[in-house]
Design goal:
This protein has helices at residues 25-32, 36-42, 57-69, 119-133, 149-157; strands at 19-21, 79-82, 88-94, 103-110, 139-144, 161-168, 172-180. The protein is an alpha+beta fold.
Length: 182
């Protein structure tokens, strides 16, 4: 199976009832401009203000520009995290298509109103399932700031192992963790 525009889900118990839903490109563009009202009009889900806040605004700008350069990335990048009741609780996706070595990097953020309910763990599990089903993907990578204990617990839970450290121009010093999926 290859990545599609259909909602992504997983049969894993941690992910029960949750899914990752692709936003239309014009909605991503609207979010990148901080235009929540237009994005809401373009989305099938009620979008919370969190999506234009400091945890998300730069991501939408980056993804909007990225999709303009290569529209094929739209299938891979940031999606909405939807809970079992149809509520948007955050965002999650890959940073783009697999690179030449088959590596994809994950990114996710959960609205503070919905944290500590397993949504990040569920979203990460869904991303791993999607990666495992796509023959292009060999390795899933995550970059985690040393002080982000909650995120580190999520990636550790899913079996990623630390492979090094690096400086990220957006996030500063991060630990790089990976898991083979092929």
């Amino acid at each position: 199976m290859t990545v599609t525009a259909e909602p992504w889900s997983s049969s894993a118990p941690d992910a029960a009832g949750r899914k990752l839903v692709q936003l239309p490109t014009p909605a991503i563009d609207a979010l990148s401009n901080g235009d929540l009202e237009s994005a809401r009009n373009l989305s099938a889900y009620p979008l919370p203000p969190y999506l234009i806040g400091p945890d998300c605004s730069d991501v939408w700008k980056m993804r909007s520009e990225q999709i303009k350069v290569d529209p094929r990335d739209a299938l891979w990048v940031t999606r909405l995290v939807i809970d079992s009741e149809g509520v948007v609780v955050g965002r999650a996706g890959f940073h783009g298509q697999p690179d030449r070595e088959g590596v994809v990097e994950v990114g996710y953020a959960i609205d503070p109103l919905h944290r500590r309910q397993g949504h990040a763990r569920a979203a990460f599990g869904i991303l791993l399932d999607v990666a495992r089903k796509d023959p292009q993907v060999k390795v899933v990578r995550a970059s985690v700031s040393p002080d982000n204990v909650a995120s580190r617990k999520v990636v550790d839970h899913h079996g990623l192992r630390e492979v090094g450290d690096r400086w990220d121009e957006d996030d500063g010093f991060v630990h790089t963790l990976e898991v083979s999926v092929s």
